[in-house]
Amino acid sequence: MLINLKTARALGLTLPHSLLADVLLYGFIAANKAQQTLEVVGDFLTYEPYGIMFRRDDAQMRDAMDRAFAVMAQTGALVGTYHKWFLQPTPTGELLNLPMSLQLTESFRVLGVDDF
């Protein structure tokens, strides 16, 4: 939900409140430079699982993906990439300032990430 911080009135409700909807709302706020007047509030109503799809019998691809995520976790690239796109100004200058969700934090922890 978007809320006007000056009037404390709701401006709109997303269709299911979710990570994707939050990314769109934070993007809307950033693109309209409305950080002082608009805020995303409320808990997620749904969580969409994301994944990378490849053939089930492609052990080489599975191993490559496992290695890539392990290296990204060990080197800090997973968190660094998140920060680059969601917590720092984008190449076009918008600042989404979208905090990392508990679900993503826990997924990174499973991969061995301790520093967020």
Describe the protein's architecture and organization.
The protein has 116 residues and is mainly α. A three-stranded antiparallel β-sheet has the order 2-1-3, with helices on one face. It is elongated and about 55 Å long. The protein folds into two domains: 1-50, no CATH class; 54-116, no CATH class. It is 43% helix and 9% strand. The mean pLDDT is 84.
Radius of gyration, in angstroms, nearest whole number: 17 Å
Task: Give a quick account of the main beta sheet: strands, pairing sense, barrel closure.
Answer: 3 strands, antiparallel
Distance, first to last CA: 26 Å
One letter per element, helices H and strands E, the order comes to: EEHEHHH
Could you give the topology of this structure?
Elements: E1 2-4, E2 9-12, H1 19-31, E3 38-40, H2 59-75, H3 77-87, H4 102-110
Antiparallel strand pairs: 1-2, 1-3
What labels would you give this structure?
elongated, mainly alpha, 3-stranded antiparallel β-sheet, 43% helix, 116 residues
Question: Quick recap of the structure?
Answer:
The chain is mainly alpha-helical and 116 residues long.
